[in-house]
Write a structure and sequence with these properties.
The protein is mainly alpha-helical. Helices cover 79% and strands 0% of the residues. The chain is built from eight helices and no strands. The chain has helices at 3-29, 32-48, 59-81, 87-94, 100-116, 119-129, 135-142, 146-171. α1 packs across α3 (59-81), α5 packs across α8 and α7 packs across α8. The longest helix has 27 residues, at 3-29. It is elongated and about 65 Å long.
């Protein structure tokens, strides 16, 4: 194949892979701004390294490796600011490739479960995990001890997790 044909095929593959790469990064980073920034960096690196891509191989597997290492790099930079994800957790998440059907089912289940939470607890969870406030900042605002808030957030996450699992199992095909 000539270089222009390979580049054309590469552009088609990278374009087709964008939604799955975005889903994979969203699972690893859990922050929409970080996902978009990291996806752009992955796209840039994939383009730079396109001559290393074997057109007979599965493009998405190759692209996921770039996503993984860029997510890891992003988290390492963020870890200098505060703890976000431990490397072991990232490794666990990285081994699972997202399914667009399962992802939308999980999102729907999570939204239903969030809606079931007390509005104050839902607001607290969403504020914590949008990435803008630390536990200490939230605890100060709520006038409670940071350890108490951490325990409360842990219990809320656990409740949310159980609800999501229950909702998904109720909606699972028989």
């Amino acid at each position: 194949m000539q270089e222009t044909e390979i580049d054309t095929q590469f552009v088609a593959e990278i374009t087709k892979a964008q939604p799955k790469m975005r889903s994979y990064l969203a699972k690893l980073l859990a922050n929409s701004t970080a996902v978009e920034d990291t996806l752009q960096e992955c796209n840039r690196l994939l383009w730079v390294k396109r001559s290393n891509w074997d057109p007979s191989s599965i493009f998405l597997k190759w692209a996921y490796r770039f996503c993984y290492f860029q997510a890891k790099s992003h988290l390492n930079k963020k870890n200098r600011d505060r703890l976000i994800f431990q490397t072991e957790l990232l490794e666990l998440f990285a081994g699972e490739y997202p399914s667009s059907t399962l992802s939308s089912e999980r999102n729907n289940a999570m939204q239903k479960c969030l809606d079931k939470l007390d509005p104050k607890n839902r607001s607290l969870l969403l504020e914590k995990y949008d990435g803008n406030l630390t536990v200490n900042q939230l605890a100060r605002r709520e006038s409670i001890n940071p350890n108490t808030l951490s325990q409360k957030l842990r219990r809320l996450r656990h409740t949310l997790h159980l609800c999501i699992i229950s909702t998904l199992s109720l909606n699972a095909p028989v």
